[in-house]
Amino acid sequence: MRSRLARSCAFLLAAGALLGTALPCRALLAQSIEPQQLAAVTARAIGPAAPGGRIVDLAVPSGRPWELYVAAASGGLWKSTNNGTTWSCVFAQSLSIGAIAVAPSDPDVIWVGTGEGNNQRSSYAGNGVWRSTDGGKSFTNVGLPESHHIGRIVVHPTDAATAWVAVLGHLYTKNGERGLYRTQDGGASWELVLGRGDAVGVVDVVIDPREPDTLFAASYQRLRRAWNFDDVGDAAIYRSRDGGDSWTRLAGGLPSGRIGRIGLAFSAAEPGWLYACIDEQNEIEVPAAKEGEAATKRPAGGGVWRSADGGATWEKRNEKPVSGEPPYYYGQIRVDPHDPDHVWVLGIEVFVSKDGGKTFASDVAGSLHSDHHALWFDPHSRGRIVLGNDGGLAQSYDGGASFDWYSNLSLAQFYTVSVDRRRPYRVYGGLQDNGVWMGPSRARGFGGSTNSDWRFIGGGDGMYVLSDPADPDTVYLESQFGALSRTNVRRGETAWIQPRGAEGEKERFNWCSPLLLSSHNSQVVYFGSQRLWRSLDRGDHWKALSGDLTTNDPAKTAGNVPHCTLTSISESPLDPDLLLVGSDDGRVQWSRDGGRTFESLESRLPGVPPALWVSRVELSPHDRAVAWVTVNGYREDDFTPYVFRTSDGGATFEAIANGLPDGPVNVIHESPRRAGVLFLGSDAGAFFSIDRGDHWQPLASDLPLNSVLDLAVHPRDPEVVVSTHGRGLFVVEVTAHEQLTAESLAAPAALFAPAPATLWRGGFGGGIGWSGDRNYRAANPPPGAPLWLWMADATKEAKVEIVDAAGKVVRTIAVAEQAGLQRVAWDLQLDPPQKPAEAKPVDAKADEQPLEPKPTPRASRQRRRYEPLPESAEVDPSEFDEPIEAPFAQDAGGGGRRRGRGGSSATPGRYTVRLSAAGVVSEQPLEVVADPGPEGG
Prior knowledge:
Blueprint: E1 12-16, E2 28-32, E3 43-47, E4 55-59, E5 68-72, E6 76-80, E7 88-91, E8 97-102, E9 110-114, E10 129-132, E11 140-143, E12 150-155, E13 163-167, E14 179-183, E15 191-194, E16 200-207, E17 215-221, E18 223-225, E19 228-230, E20 237-240, E21 248-249, E22 259-266, E23 274-286, E24 296-307, E25 315-316, E26 332-335, E27 343-346, E28 350-353, E29 361-364, E30 372-377, E31 385-389, E32 392-396, E33 404-405, E34 414-419, E35 426-431, E36 435-440, E37 455-458, E38 462-468, E39 471-479, E40 483-488, E41 493-496, E42 515-517, E43 525-528, E44 532-535, E45 543-544, H1 554-557, E46 566-572, E47 575-583, E48 588-591, E49 599-600, E50 613-619, E51 627-632, E52 642-646, E53 654-655, E54 665-670, E55 678-682, E56 685-689, E57 697-698, E58 708-713, E59 719-724, E60 729-733, H2 742-746, E61 749-751, E62 757-759, E63 785-791, E64 799-803, E65 809-814, E66 820-826, H3 857-866, E67 909-917, E68 920-930
Parallel strand pairs: 62-68
Antiparallel strand pairs: 1-2, 3-60, 4-5, 5-6, 6-7, 8-9, 9-10, 10-11, 12-13, 13-14, 14-15, 16-17, 17-20, 18-19, 20-21, 22-23, 23-24, 24-25, 26-27, 27-28, 28-29, 30-31, 31-32, 32-33, 34-35, 35-36, 36-37, 38-39, 39-40, 40-41, 42-43, 43-44, 44-45, 46-47, 47-48, 48-49, 50-51, 51-52, 52-53, 54-55, ...
């Protein structure tokens, strides 16, 4: 297993003749490219912020009530210094966060424990503990790299260098680095002060506000497998009176036996009171509801216990169970610092007690997303509450009677992404616990898209979603475990179309079941359970093409999570009879006869442990004998990237992960426009290769570290949509990626063929207006035509010229003096006509004239607007000579801003782009097309 902290600092980009199968021996030019030479390749965030995302912890520094730190499960640490009006991401050095803490004695010392403490399928491992001493401007990793998941951090009230960290340890395997750790030197060294072996971690720890040497910690035993989750076992509450040097396991009325997750909270209003919420799975007898009926048994469920004597004795407060469901996903309890009887337990709902935990109501936060994980009470302002859940962040100023939701945090956790062929195209995605959404890849107006441009089209945990290429209003979408439907997003009509086996046959569907529309006929739909299904009529009727294509391992199918299921389906764009499937138990199988028979290939994948999760299979759109397979070891705590290529129809496979950083691989696609150009997403980010996977390079220079679970390569536009699980969606232009060749990299300068450019008619999309600063707006791409070029060296006096159909140069754009890839934008404006210089007569009496202030350009325009001149008046042209910006112009590589007066817009038609640099003249055709209209063509 390779270290989570290992990261490649540079990659070798091999630029070769990407010739598919034409030449068995490919001539490659191996050339090292410096990172700054790819800096022009950037990712454009398109949100959305509308769905929110999972918040797992909150912190507010003492004495700074409007300074908020918000930890997203997989979206980084965000800071606001103005009570949430605006935010900045201050920490993104780990895929996931479990806990944060601000030192009570120094508000600039922030501790971050990485790796979510919840136990979801999407709870990613972290890379240890990080610390900042400058208010989040910089962070340093201070150890515990194999902790993986951290439930809580507490900091000594008067010593910012002393902290205790509750480490849960690995989620899928046993490991030694779990328990409660203490540092007394700011993380320079650590000691395990409470350990219960390699299977039991610590999920929570609290410090007595009266006696900082008194701590309470909750142990927790849990182990997730891909097919089963068990979190009931050796869980208990421990107390230390000497800062952690020694511990006592508490009893005194606490339950024992089958115990799950435990949460702890002190009362600030009554410091001697300590509350615990405990998931008790011991069975209790339930009296018969009616006379003559037998009594039944059920788990005791969630209970609230309270100690008023420092943990010596405990009293169970509630009779009716109160907890989240499933309890392993929640486990947080908080006490109002102004009222020791005001107790909150977080779950799917927010449970609130006003009598010290005896009874609970769930009538608060009903206007918010469910699934609550983080809560903070303002100790100085009664009624102010900050709440985090699966839908983001909210605040209340009236004790929970009403909440204000913060819609300006883009933390969407996407599982999948797809696109249609409108202009601009729509993007579709399924999200963790936030359903299925669709929105624009860019706004039609001058500003970028906003939350109002996105539309919720399906519920549950959103998984695959595909728009019919022949009818883009028809969308296939699914939620967890194979709940499949077809909806018309224009009419709002929905049909449930999940395939079902014959009577007595039970279908096993994966959490994210594979869905595919045939590229040969979009009415043909493929879907996977343990079998491969096909529908010829858009899902109205189904036929099982195969029997069970998995191992059907009885030990795994008996688990409490569906397993031995298909995870990926591919149909060859060249031959509808060529099918390739992968499964969560390691099987890879190829059919050459439309699914009647299958050949097993997994034994031919070199160097892969058996039965790992096959994350993606892909048949090449350029060659029937070429296919790609990725395998994901995350569910075995194996972070090795596994990527494979076959060039002989599956007879042999070779590993092609050379140069990829550590991180399980989730998806791979080949460009439909150029053979051998690959796009890959892993838990370490997004990457591309131009030589069939022999070498890899980061897809963009500024993508945040995040798990990339899916990619959508647009079939028409040279763009890739990157689906992150925690930071929403990003669009990357791949014109250059798909055209880099040995010849272009060897030349002093090269110009790549641009995609058609659209003359958008404008309009003011977005809907933000003058609504203040607490909003979210994605970025539109720079307007006009993006032009990509390669410069081997920094060259002076390089230029790009736009030539019309008559051979006339209509625009000249300067090129920056820098090496590497460059993006130059033509904003579709023409150079203004040249005016001949005119001599002006000298007025000899000018010195005798009284001086009058000349109207400013704004004053001139206002006068023209509000004080019309009489019809007989003559207009002085000089009054209109100030430069007027094009309404959509902006700086973009030297060509985005109008450079003079009197220029006009280009018209639809054919143009030529000419690059002159370093003695090279290179030309490419460019088509400018008209706005397709609101329907997108």
